[in-house]
Backbone:
């Protein structure tokens, strides 16, 4: 944080100096003061050099935090893609607080970055800061999670996951897995959901209900938010298992929470993947390994490697081009019925 701040103020200073000297230079040229021209040419030469460097794109990125291995991979992907493209990245970690994201975005506006990109931790509450960016003429790219806004024109476009579809995939798997079940003994499902108010938690819940919600052969017995944290997945599962063991399936919105829940099951002698069928989202290596061991039954990929796409869209925006309003990344589903040896190392 302090590194960026210091670089930022240094750069801000430089930008101010540039426009100051540019103005004076143009003024003197206009007045035709030939003698003084030589003196100012020194500054002009420096100005030209600096301007060439300044032509490089500056991208301000507000990440929500480091809550999961998925998020770590997402951050690496963005940093690597920016470095490969020679784009200057101002990266801020909001430590799971929307107010920190708003502060970071405001600092990017003050810095006059070329493009702002951010992962909205929750859907609501962005309109004011987006208006500030719009008034400053800075295009905004939203990534990973979606927002709800009164004015869709406040941002340029979105790239990220299709959480609704991920939820549907989880439903399809359970439909297939429990195809023999009748409505007399419905499949009892525990849902551990993601951060409340986040578009991905809403989408994963909605998509799932679209498929199993009105089917009498399925019953969602409880839905509790584990904030995408492994520790909370563990706590929730331990708590529930003290009340009941009558659970057929766990639908968990991310692998971190799933792995925590698996620890809790094992502690009380429940066999994950057998006594309780498990569907999880993200496809971290640890979840794929659990799938291979038979402790998880279905893993729905959520693709965190969006860095190259974010950078290419940012470049377009910096050039004043328009980008698609909505782009979903490609994602796969891995189940216990697949050839699991064919799954390439995940890298997260
Ligand atoms: O599934 C989870 C993370 O927003 C899609 O956030 C992302 C989710 C991802 O922490 O692991």
Residues:
């Amino acid at each position: 944080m302090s590194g960026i701040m210091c670089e930022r103020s240094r750069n801000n200073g430089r930008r101010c100096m540039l426009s100051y000297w540019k103005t004076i230079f143009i003024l003197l040229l206009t007045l035709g003061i030939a003698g003084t021209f030589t003196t100012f040419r020194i500054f002009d030469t420096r100005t030209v050099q600096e301007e060439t460097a300044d032509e490089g794109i500056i991208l301000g990125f507000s990440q929500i935090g480091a809550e999961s291995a998925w998020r770590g991979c997402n951050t690496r992907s963005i940093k690597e893609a920016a470095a490969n493209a020679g784009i200057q990245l101002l990266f801020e970690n909001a430590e799971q607080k929307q107010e920190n994201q708003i502060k970071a975005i405001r600092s990017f506006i003050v810095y006059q970055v070329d493009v702002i990109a951010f992962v909205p931790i929750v859907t609501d509450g962005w309109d004011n800061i987006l208006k500030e960016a719009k008034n400053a003429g800075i295009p905004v790219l939203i990534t990973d999670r979606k927002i709800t806004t009164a004015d869709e024109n406040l941002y340029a476009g979105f790239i990220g996951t299709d959480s609704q579809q991920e939820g549907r995939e989880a439903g399809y798997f359970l439909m297939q897995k429990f195809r023999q079940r009748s409505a007399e003994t419905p499949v009892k499902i525990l849902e551990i959901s993601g951060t409340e108010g986040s578009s991905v938690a809403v989408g994963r819940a909605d998509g799932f209900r679209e498929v199993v919600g009105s089917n009498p052969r399925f019953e969602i017995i409880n839905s509790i938010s584990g904030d995408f944290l492994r520790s909370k997945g563990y706590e929730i599962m331990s708590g529930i298992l003290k009340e009941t063991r009558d659970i057929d399936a766990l639908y968990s919105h991310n692998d971190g929470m799933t792995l925590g829940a698996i620890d809790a099951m094992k502690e009380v002698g429940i066999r994950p993947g057998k006594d309780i069928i498990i569907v999880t989202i993200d496809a971290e290596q640890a979840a794929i390994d659990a799938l291979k061991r038979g402790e998880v039954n279905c893993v729905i990929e959520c693709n965190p490697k969006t860095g190259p796409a974010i950078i290419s869209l940012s470049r377009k925006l910096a050039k004043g081009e328009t980008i698609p309003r909505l782009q979903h990344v490609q994602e796969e589903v891995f189940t216990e019925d697949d050839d699991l040896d064919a799954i390439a190392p995940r890298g997260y």
